[in-house]
Amino acid sequence: MRGKGWYEIIYGEYPTNVVSDSTSNTLERDLRRLTKTGKTYTFDTHKWNENDETYSPKSYEEYEQNGKRYVRIECYAFTEDDNTPLSDGQSRKNGDAVWLEVEPVTWAVDEKTGIPLSINGLYSGIQMLDKGEKYDGDFSKTRQKKYLDEVFEKDIEPSRTQNRRSFFCITRS
Questions:
Q1: Structural domain harbouring 70
Q2: Is residue 77 part of a domain?
Q3: Which one of 105, 129, 145, 167 is most buried, counting C-beta atoms within 10 A?
Q4: Kind plus residue range of the DSSP H or E element containing 39
């Protein structure tokens, strides 16, 4: 996507990547001493096989250590005995702590339409519809649209602890 007709911007921040085992162990060990930033991120807590259930939001606190920010979430495995693969190739069991690093969000913006598209996937597991609803072709009426407008839009706003601008152009082609 980076090329003619697109330019990139950085806007906002979001928990994106699983941290290394050593960082995870350090954060877990220091949990009670970590600085809470006051910011939270909201994720759906329904399990993968509960697609007929309604949206179950849960907020997770953001922590800061050594100038980096992290979110500690709980793993929702496929089954109680199963391991869930993570973005770094590791896996976790149901209920295990998973630490994600909060990083700036890079967007590719189409010069013609002005429509931004995130370079990295940002959220997952948000149901398209609530239990019993049928999709009528209008995305504006879906659970995902409501999540994007009411939760995600606020979640990507920069942390109050940051002293940097949250919006600037990186490249232009």
A1: 6-172
A2: yes
A3: 105
A4: strand 35-44
